[in-house]
Amino acid sequence: MVLWGDIELPGFDRPLVPVEPARREALAAHLRDALADVSAPDIDGAASNTNPTAPDFRDACAACRGHCCRKGGNDAYLDFKSTALAWGRFPHLSKEELVAAYLAAVPERAFRDSCIYHAEHGCNLPETMRAPVSGAYLCSPLLKLKALLSRTPSAGSAEGPARPATDG
């Protein structure tokens, strides 16, 4: 457990290890398989796949260091829908070029037994290429805070929701 202000978060503490070629090969095969089911870039979905009113918990996730990322494995939660959305953001790329862009984002070192993109300073994959669940998922403490903020009058103010004080 780690503290973010006065909120206890799950926390993550595994060592960084080199990303082995077999992991990269598994990711490449998975992406090619996922993209085989995609007939065209999802340009409409890519343009509307945001929620600007959602609370910004990136500081909390940085403090936790990616507990939720530990199950991302070699597929990083990517599937045919998420690759179609990413392709919709980069429709000028061929499928093979999109796979190459995903592979180029794999860090040299990632946390052991975690998502292939889970690097020392967070996710090495650009937000525009991540699976929607990577941006939408909230751990239990943050879900509770989000619910609390949605009931607070200041949650809809021009300044946005109040956030807990952090130690840094």
Structure description:
The chain has 168 residues and is mainly α. The protein has one domain. 39% of the residues lie in helices and 10% in strands. The protein has helices at residues 21-36, 43-48, 58-64, 80-89, 95-104, 132-136, 140-151; strands spanning 2-4, 7-9, 16-18, 109-111, 118-119, 122-123. A two-stranded antiparallel ribbon has the order 1-2. A two-stranded antiparallel ribbon has the order 3-4. It has a two-stranded antiparallel ribbon with strand order 5-6. The protein starts with a strand and ends in a 17-residue tail after the last helix. The model is unreliable at 155-162 (pLDDT under 50).
Mean pLDDT: 87
Tally of DSSP β-strands: 6
Q: How many domains make up the 3D coordinates?
A: 1
Largest sheet entry = 2 strands, antiparallel
Shape: flat
Largest beta sheet: strand ordering: 1-2
Q: Any low-confidence stretches, pLDDT <50, length ≥5?
A: 155-162
- What gap, in angstroms, lies between the N and C termini? 17 Å
In N-to-C order, the SSE pattern is: EEEHHHHHEEEHH
Our count of helices gives: 7
| Helix vs. strand class | mainly alpha
